[in-house]
Amino acid sequence: MTMKLFLLLLTPVLIFAKVHYAKVQPYDSVVLKSAVSGLVVDVDLDAEGTMVTSGRVIHIDDVLDKSNLEDTKESIKLLDQMLGINQEIASSLSGTVKRQEGYYKRISKLATASKTQKDNAYNSFTSAKTQYLTTKEKIVSLQKQILDMKYKATQLEDTLVKKSIILENKYLYKLMVRVGDYVAPGAALAEIQDASRAKLVLYLEPEELSGVEKKAVFIDGKRTDYKVNKVWRVADEKFISSYRAEIYIPAPENAFSKLLKVEVK
Question: Looking at the structure, do residues 105 and 89 belong to the same domain, yes or no?
Fold first, then answer.
């Protein structure tokens, strides 16, 4: 009888769970920072506080970059043409070198050929070979210039992409710049949120951590199929005696920030 009474008294302690209150938050929040410098020429203020399906919300001046990119691409075309011409010249000179070399080898063995004839044949051979090698060197130089120009074009294209902040299915929570602002690399541009799903953030006591991932989650007194998805095993910086935990749930139909009563037991 005494043992039964003890178990009855112990049962409420075992099923007791601390009540937490958590705000429904977007799954993730990120502050976008500028990777380039420049003058802000356009900001879509109407998009602030809305879900942006697909659109540019911030535009940093890129006129000179576009012009530079066009000139660079044109330079690549011209260098390609020069490369082609020099490759044809090198091909022609290669044949000349072979003929001059063959003539020099033949005449150098003839006892009847004069020293002047032999010298002229040698000079013609070395001159042709020098022209050929000079052209080959120019080809290598042009190839290097083309590589440098292509790298420059890639850099400019990358810069142009970074000067347009385009959002795809993201909630634009806050714009941090306005038209006329000059931004430098690292400057905060906007805060965006992933509102495709939501999360509840709890701060659990040490005694609540044991097997917490397997415990049932009750919201506003009703048992749910949700689980504690993530637990920090180091005490929180602000709530120094508690441990942060997150529960992931579907995004609300209307608005975020609703306060829910949460129990984990």
Answer: yes
